Amino acid sequence: MSDFERKFGKYAINNLTLKLIICYAVGYVLAFAPIGSGILNYLTLNPYAILHGQVWRLVTWLIVPPQESNILFALIMLFFFYSIGTQMERTWGEYRFNLYIFTGIFLIIIGAFLFYIITYFRVGGAVDMLAASYFPQTATFFSTYYICMSILLAYAATYPDSIILFMFIIPLKMKWLGIIYGAWLALEAVFAVFDQAYYVFFPIAASLINFAIFYLKDGKLMRFRPKEVTRRRQYSQQVKMTAPGISRHKCAVCGRTELDDPNLEFRFCSKCNGNYEYCQDHLFTHRHVK
Predict the structure, then answer these.
(1) What burial class does residue 173 get, using C-beta atoms within 10 Å of its C-beta: 0-12 exposed, 13-18 middle, 19+ buried?
(2) 25-61 burial by CB neighbour count: b if 16+ within 10 A, else e?
């Protein structure tokens, strides 16, 4: 736990996933209502409208749902993201999960204004010509959909071996779902650049950058630090010397081992001073040993 988290962690929003799902639910009610779509047009993340006084759009765009005509599929999607979102919140802790979500929100807002700036220079400053139709149509792409997708990528990276029933039939490991979806997002972003569809590129880029920031900070990037290389080498030597029936992993917080639950995952913390190992429930929530 960092000093910044100890100071500001108390301000983290509890059960943030549920609140996002409620925002989605309100958005879908408006989308399927007879006059709801007209109301949603005044809530989207439209940079042109924001710069002309409609500043409430900086917040209200959070209730704009992905474009979906099948209400059953929308409900299934909401349930799926609620389940993985709450699991990530329990794993990371409220503060870290809040930071992940709000970083994604901030990056999407930046992406919307970058799209506006690029459009401004492409049309030679005559943005008023596009205000009536182009910006309202493209603003719907700047929604929290890609933030939810970044949660899926984070979940796949944290629980790569967990199994889900794809299409309710096919068992599939999360790591493969994450790889497939990440590759699809990257390919979609590349095609968006070639088509100059920057209103598609920027939301996708925001979600991928958000995932990359957190994953490289606490994930694969740590493997190349000298301290981590030495720690892995020492651990490998200890494993070879471990007698049968004796646990190889033990959480420094709760004391659980792989003998208590074979499905538990254990990781060393590179920020702790010493070889401290933690289970998946305490890897991101423990206080660092200095």
Answers:
(1) middle
(2) ebbbebbeeeeeeeebeebbbbbbbbeeeeeebeebb
Report the pLDDT averaged over residues 99-123: 89
pLDDT at 221 over 50: no
Residue in 84, 111, 72, 109 with CA at minimum distance from that of residue 20: 84
> How far apart are alpha carbons 17 and 14 in whole angstroms?
9
3-state secondary structure the chain: CCHHHHHHHHHCCCCHHHHHHHHHHHHHHHHHCCCHHHHHCCCCCCHHHHHCCCCCHHHHHHHCCCCCCCHHHHHHHHHHHHHHHHHHHHHHCHHHHHHHHHHHHHHHHHHHHHHHHHHHHHCCCCHHHCCCCHHHHHHHHCCCHHHHHHHHHHHHHHCCCCEEEECCCEEEEHHHHHHHHHHHHHHHHHHHHHCCCHHHHHHHHHHHHHHHHHHHHHCHHHHHCHHHHHHHHHHHHHHHCCCCCCCCCECCCCCCECCCCCCCCEEECCCCCCCCEEECCCCCCCCCCC
pLDDT in tens, 230-247: 555 665 666 555 545 566
Question: Is the dihedral angle over the CA atoms 197, 202, 205, 211 positive or is it negative?
Answer: negative
Per the structure block, which two tokens stand in for 236? 């490998």
Q: How many other C-beta atoms lie within 10 A of the C-beta of residue 90?
A: 13
pLDDT at 159: 83
> 76-88: per-residue pLDDT in tens?
777 888 888 888 8
Does the pLDDT of residue 190 top 60, yes or no? yes
